[in-house]
Amino acid sequence: IAEAMGLCLPGASSIPAADSNHIRMSTNVGKRIVEMTWEDLTPKKIITENSVENAVTVAMAMGCSTNAIIHLIAIARRANINLTMDDLDKKGRKVPLIANIRPSGKDYLMEDFYYAGGILSLMYSLSSQLNLEEITVSGLNLGELIDGKETLNQDIIRSLNNPIYKEGSLAVLKGNLAPDGCVIKPAACDKKFLKHKGPAIVFNSYPDMKKIIDSDTLDVTENHVLVLRNVGPVGGQGMPEWGMMPIPKKLLKKGVRDMIRISDARMSGTSYGACILHVAPESYIGGPLSLLETGDMVEIDVNLRSINMNVDKKTLLERKKKLKKNKPKAGRGWLWMYSNHVLQANDGCDFDFLESDFGISANEPDIF
User: What are the backbone dihedrals phi and psi of residue 39, each rounded to the nearest 5 degrees, phi first?
Assistant: First the structure.
């Protein structure tokens, strides 16, 4: 994403950890930083609507982490670009997954991707869908950087005509369970769960889930929907990577390897499975996820981009009346500031006072 946006020197972003090109790249970065200072080439000139669009396109084609949505929205809004969940979902429907690397791909790792040509070759394959005139930190535009960078292995970096998955890496679902959206990685889950209806099993905290999940007395089948709440940006605190809930042990013994899991948390980019994440608004601040009860039917349709609990409005209203408002987890200091100013996942989990339209201090220089 950083390289597609123009913020890395060519090929820098996918160098394997032990490769000596890291040392060479570090030297080149130091030299280039000095040159950029004299050229007055600042992030403000590089991060534009078109370069952000390039980053989103590459993210979808790459099989990016679900965390990418949060980072992309936050970066864009710092630069006064109003990137939304809907924008990301539209791009996800248009851009196919062409990087055959795990977990969305099946056969290769990131190291294989690098030696097949890396990000530059991926962008070469995507060139018809990129804004090639965008300037990069190298001083060259994107089109100049990727010119002639064909892949060395067409099974690792596919063409647009031979994708791993016809749509992009991520899909955004909305409905009465997540009015502001949530995220799923369709290419990394069992296809039978892309359309699913099942009863919920609700956990109010991570410790509660850990206590119960492996119990032999837990009444659970692979058709159930596991729900973990109060683990979002405010409730977490910090939105921990707990979204890939473990499969109950009694199901593992039967050979079950995937099932629907819903949370307002995140998960690692290397994780996989039918995990629905970043539910917004989060349950801790009174989002609809807080009204869900064990036994309620939950219905998901990735193709329709929908996620709903089949509970009538009257019942939800009654539950809402009984709901107790959670207090901030800290009365003063850093955690108070965090709890009161962090945004929801659909808005990038940034601090509201750091977004470009919040206001600029009279003494703040225009360095961005």
Answer: -80, -10
Could you give the angle at which helices 67-78 and 85-94 cross, rounded to 10 degrees?
120
Cβ neighbors of 41 (< 8 A, separation 6 or more) are 135, 137, 139
Residue 270 predicted with pLDDT over 90: no
Element (H, E) at 73: helix 67-78
| Pairing outcome for strands 195-203 and 178-184 | unpaired
Q: What is the pLDDT of residues 176-217, one digit of tens each?
A: 999 999 999 988 888 899 999 999 999 999 999 999 999 999
For the question of residue 128 being annotated catalytic, the response is: no
**Whether residue 361 has pLDDT greater than 60:** no
Looking up tokens 């005509």 gives 161
CA 190/CA 70 separation, integer angstroms = 24
Q: Kindly give the interhelix angle for 118-125 and 49-62, rounded to the nearest 10 degrees.
A: 100
| Catalytic-role residue among 159, 215, 268, 283 | 268
Query: What are the start-end ranges of the E strands in the chain?
Result: 171-175, 178-184, 195-203, 225-228, 261-263, 275-280, 297-301, 306-309
Specify whether the CB–CB gap between 264 and 345 falls below 8 A. Answer: yes
Residue that the structure tokens 């003063």 belong to: 332
pLDDT of 95 reads 95
